[in-house]
Amino acid sequence: MAKPDGKAKQAKGKNATYMCAVCGHIAIGKIPIKCPECGAGGDNFQKIA
Ligand SMILES: [Zn+2]
Q1: How far is CA 9 from CA 4, 16, 18, 39, in A?
Q2: What is the mean pLDDT of the chain?
Q3: So where are the chain's domains?
Q4: 20 to 30 Å CA-CA from 37: which of 11, 24, 43, 46?
């Protein structure tokens, strides 16, 4: 196959930004399973952009 260019798991092209409600860590594009800063679960991430 050719390059998986934009047709990956993310159907939408925009990179949303999410913030950890516990420590304020910023994640771009997708919500992490766990916050790398404080270890909080993805449930604690809120979309901010
Ligand atoms: Zn956090």
Answers
A1: 10, 14, 18, 24
A2: 85
A3: 17-47
A4: 11
Q: How many CB atoms sit inside 10 A of residue 29's CB? A: 11
* pLDDT (0 to 100) of residue 37: 97
Question: The tokens of 17 are what?
Answer: 């930004």
Report pTM: 0.69
**How many whole angstroms from 17 Cα to the centroid of ligand 1?**
14
Ligand 1 centroid from CA 25, angstroms: 5
Q: How many CA atoms lie within 13 A of 3 on its CB side?
A: 2
| Ligand 1 centroid from CA 1, angstroms | 38
- Ligand 1 centroid to 42 CA: how many Å? 9
